[in-house]
Automatic annotation (TrEMBL):
Family matches, as SUPFAM superfamilies: Homeodomain-like, Tetracyclin repressor-like, C-terminal domain
Pfam families for the chain: TetR_N
Residue ranges the UniProt entry marks as DNA-binding: 31-50
Source organism superkingdom: Bacteria
Keywords: DNA-binding, Transcription, Transcription regulation
Stated name of the protein: ScbR family autoregulator-binding transcription factor
Ranges for domain HTH tetR-type: 8-68
Gene3D superfamilies, sorted: Tetracycline Repressor, domain 2 (1.10.357.10)
Length: 238
């Protein structure tokens, strides 16, 4: 049990270290040696969890979705807003989310990773908009698929501009402005008037996520034990 928990912590440390190096250096310039130094693990431990640099980058791309995971909202447009605000906040603070943005963009990255992260963000946005449509939150003419593409592309453009001009210092405020411009074109007035789209909302969401993480951490040992989970991990992988 303790060995498995150490392995999970080791994997998390490797991902965080890899993300910080990818974010600072880019994929091509990043080296396994620097990632090992920052993670403070052995080469055997790293290769147990990630057999190559590309696998590390794919791990960072996949981990971003856990970093910006929200509890479902009753109002799906509020869920869309909250996800956008949380992602903006995380992008400023969390190297995993920031590195994933860098790894997701650019033609050379598409060659390596196939653009799956961008496609997944569009698909996630489309799912929320379909749910919003089913609940009567969208104007009759709104096509969830087309709107998901536009919302995702516009959000990406905002973060790229913010990164270039202010190192993302104003990203949350710019995302708020983006939603203020986009939402009136898709939301029915009754829903639009109830949506909370403010920088302060981002702080509330962060506190919610942090509290949920603390609650899950307290429950995790009990649930793992309840399911009788036993995983043998090579000593070098800890």
């Amino acid at each position: 049990m303790a060995q498995q928990e150490r392995a999970i912590r080791t994997r998390h440390a490797i991902l965080k270290a890899a993300a910080s190096v990818f974010d600072e250096r880019g994929y091509e310039a990043a080296t396994i040696g620097e990632i090992l130094t920052r993670a403070g693990v052995t080469k055997g431990a790293l290769y147990f969890h990630f057999p190559s640099k590309q696998a590390l980058a794919e791990g960072v791309l996949n981990a971003q979705f856990a970093e910006v995971s929200l509890a479902p909202r009753v109002c799906k447009l509020q869920e869309l807003v909250d996800t956008g605000l949380l992602t903006a906040d995380r992008m400023r603070r969390d190297p995993v989310v920031s590195a994933a943005a860098r790894l997701s963009l650019g033609q050379e990255m598409r060659t390596l990773f196939g653009g799956q992260a961008v496609s997944l963000w569009i698909a996630t946005t489309e799912k929320v908009l379909h749910e919003a449509k089913a609940q009567g939150e969208l104007l009759p003419h709104v096509d969830p698929a087309a709107s998901a593409w536009i919302v995702s592309a516009a959000w990406t453009g905002v973060q790229v501009y913010s990164h270039t001009l202010s190192d993302r210092a104003d990203l949350v405020e710019r995302v708020v402005s983006l939603f203020e411009h986009l939402l009136p074109s898709i939301a029915v007035p009754a829903v639009l008037s109830r949506l909370v789209v403010t920088p302060e909302r981002a702080d509330e969401i962060v506190r919610e996520i942090e509290q949920r993480a603390r609650d899950e951490a307290e429950r995790a040992p009990e649930s793992v034990q309840a399911f009788g989970l036993r995983t043998r991990v090579p000593a070098d992988a800890e």
